[in-house]
Every structure is written in C-alpha cells, then in structure tokens.
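Quick start: what a row looks like.
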Amino acid sequence: IPDERSAAYFALGMAQQLQKPVVICCTSGTAALNYAPAIAEAYYQKIPLIVITADRPDAWIDQADGQTIRQENIFYNYIKSSYRINGDAEQKDDLWYVNRTINEAIEKCIKPAQGPVHINVSLNEPLYKRENNSHLKPRIISSINKETGIDSNSLNELQKKWSESKRKLILCGLLTPDTELKKTLKTLSLNSRTVVLTETTSNLKDNNFINCIDRTIDCIDINSAENFRPDILVTIGNPVISKKIKSFFRANKPKEHWHIEQTDEFTDTYQSLTRFIDLSPKYVLKNLLFEQQPIDNEFYNTWHKLSKANYIKHQEYLKSAEYSDLKAFEVLSENLPENSVVHLGNSSPVRYIQLFEQKEHLEWFSNRGTSGIDGCTSTAAGASYIKKEQLTILISGDISFIYDSNALWNNYLQKNLRIIVINNKGGGIFRIIDRPEKEEELQKLFETRHSMNLQKLVEAFGIDYRFASDINSLKKELDVFFKPSEKPIVLEIETTPDVNDSVLKKYFEYIKKQ
C-alpha cells in the first residue's frame, strides 16, 4: 500500500477485527511520520499494532544525509514501548539482544492491555545483496498470564455500595461486540433495575437499554435534572460520543463514579471519579449479580419513560421532515443489511446515526480514539479485508472521504466493501455542534466548502459509482448497492447544507416540546 498514512489505518482496521497484532513497516525519514495519526488512534482505542521503521545509523543523524531524521522515540506519546535494534547485527550477543527485544515488543503489544509498539531498525548501506535468513527459526519466549481478580474485602465493599444504592446507571462507550457482556448488562438491567445507556458504537443494542442518548436527554432541563442523577455511575468502554451526556454528568455529578477498564490510566471524564477498577468490565459486573435489597423502580422508570416519550416525538417529526442528512440517515438505518460490519466516519455521520434505533445483528466500528477524520476509509478497507464473508459498509462525510481518497489506491480492496458518502459540500459537523453565529464565518473558516467531483475521483481508481439526491433515488440505489458485486461500490448521497441545518434544529426543538 504506497501511502504510509493509509497503510497504517488499513492495518488498524485489520487489527480491530482480529484483536491480534498487525505489523506495519516502512522506510526511514518522513515515511515514518505518516504513520503517526493511525498510531495515535490505535493507542487510544487500545488496538495492537507493531510499527517497524527503517532508520539510519546514529553516526549519520543530522549529517545532511538522505532520508535521515531523528527517529528514536518518534512516537513517544502514543505507544506503549519503543525499541531500537541493529539491523546489521551479526555477533552472537547482538543477535540474542535482537531476538529478546522483539519478543518483549510483541508481549507489550498485547498485554496487559493492547496497544501499539515501535521497533526502530538501524541499517547501514548498502541495503542490497543481503543474505536471506528466513529459514532460521526465531526463539519464541512465551508467557503465562497471572490470574487477576478482586480481593474479598474489596468485592464485599463494592457489592455493599451497589446494593445500598437506589439509583444505578451504567454508561457504555466504544466497545467491540461481546455477547457475554451484553447478557450480563441485560440481567443487571432487569434484576436490579439498573439504567443502561449505550451508543451505537458500544455494540450493545437491547430493548432493555436506552440506545439513543442524545435523543433521550435533550429535554432534561435544570429543574428536572436531579431526577436523572444517579447515586452510582459506572462507565465502561472507550470514549463516549455524546457531548450532551458529558455535559449532563459534569453538571450533575453522581455520588460515586466507578470506571472499569483494563488500563493503567485513570479516566475521569465526568470529574467525579471515586473508584478506578483495572479489570475486565464483564468480570466486575458479573460480581454485582447477587441477591439485593428490595429494588426501587422510580429512577429506572423515570429514564425509560423519557426515552419512550422522545422516541414517539422522533417518529412524529420524521414523518413530515424534508429531505436532508437526517432523512438520509433514517433511510440508511432502516436498510442496512443484517450481519454487516458498519464503520462510521467521524464528525456528522457518527452523531446522526446515534439518533436512530439500530438493528441488533450489526457490528459497529469508528475511529473514536482520537476522533479524527483522517483514515476512516482506509480503516474500513482493512476491516473488509479481514471480514471477506461479510458486507463491510462505511458511512462517511465528504471531507473525510476526500481527505483519505488514497485509501482507494490499494491492491487489497475487497468486493464486499461499500462506501456511502454523505456529500453536504463541506464540514457538516459545524452545523451540529456549537457553531459560529455568523454564516460568513461558518462557511469561510469552518465548513471547508468544496466543488470536488466525487464521481470522477472514484472512477479514477476503477471503482463503481452510484448517486442519489432525494429519498426516492436513495431507496432505489440502496436496492442495488447492497447486492453482491465484483468490485467495491461508492454511493454519493447529495444533500443541502442550509436545509440540513434547519431540519436538525427543528428536530431538537420538537424533541424538547412538552
């Protein structure tokens, strides 16, 4: 894959699906710097990447020699560990050091939490006519995992707090699909009347959970906020998308906040952390399934009553809403084929999709570790390479798609890949989140207006292209778009920025109506 930035995201998409390390390897110099965005994303998503970069010997650094920059610890802030080895090692002790170092790097990549590691390999010239030693078997150093768990005193204390608390809420961020975790959460929801808030990217769709957070909480005002404040807030998973729920819990702090995650970093997103539990969420939550004191349904019922009321308003509004991004996402949500792998581009797509109930048998992914727009298409392409038997669908914004168009310059694109581009002629995200008051300022400095011809761009890479610009043409195109094909397909859905803005603003005004 010739573009290093795209190659790194492609590998990230592969590792995301495999949950095993994938190796990326490049030449020395600025090529290595192009890996940085994907490495940062992998670090914050806890995805295992092994990054191998060629380098020049120390003697030639800063000596005006070609493809020579300061590469040691180049990814310092976004990797679990960095290693430097001599690619010209020949002596017995040197080869022993190389072998031991690579074993350690692989171990660090996967335990205790997954993440990227960097191996910088210095090489002398000439780089050619080297002996191929691939027939030599490396020494593999295996490790035994130590058992981890909660000591009895800590467990008793957690269970006591849990049992005594009448208002319990679990907030789920970005997670890979996990049937066992979902089953445990469902049991907690039913048995202890725990409110479970999930997002699409939590992969925890269930009728007993509140799956559309922004749609649910938008009408909670300062007068009613206390009714929705939990005694115990439990957070699991990687970052939460909803800015509304972050603002709510920062303003209405729970009495206790437990964050459960296998990591060595304290995550205090809501400024109220009281317990950090460095263990698997499903392990800890299973230990909260026990006989409890009589349950108080009021808190649970308050949340679910609001969720149901706003769902009815949601349906009512959409019946008469005009064609826009919101209506396009309604059609997409209804038509996504079951058992598909769906990747969401950052900015507006990942936020629009949160407003809709999703089918249960879908897998959802998004680069929400750092939430950048770069690399979304490459990541989905990497995922489709692994999930060849499943349809892999990317829903992207136009700026994100154009920015990562080199993802299509790739010999490994699979025919199961489908790319949907919502083309609203600029950065539609700035019409969703807090925005400048002046339209001129919005368009000039934030939206990135463009006149790119997406059809010509797509066809230049030899990929099939489809187009829709209203509800009828969109439904017609989707009938064909999801069917088996011999090539990847890109579907451009064109909408109008001003209409999108108006429709979404009126949507939230309608939700807030009493």
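That is the whole record. The mean pLDDT is 91. The longest strand covers residues 49-55.
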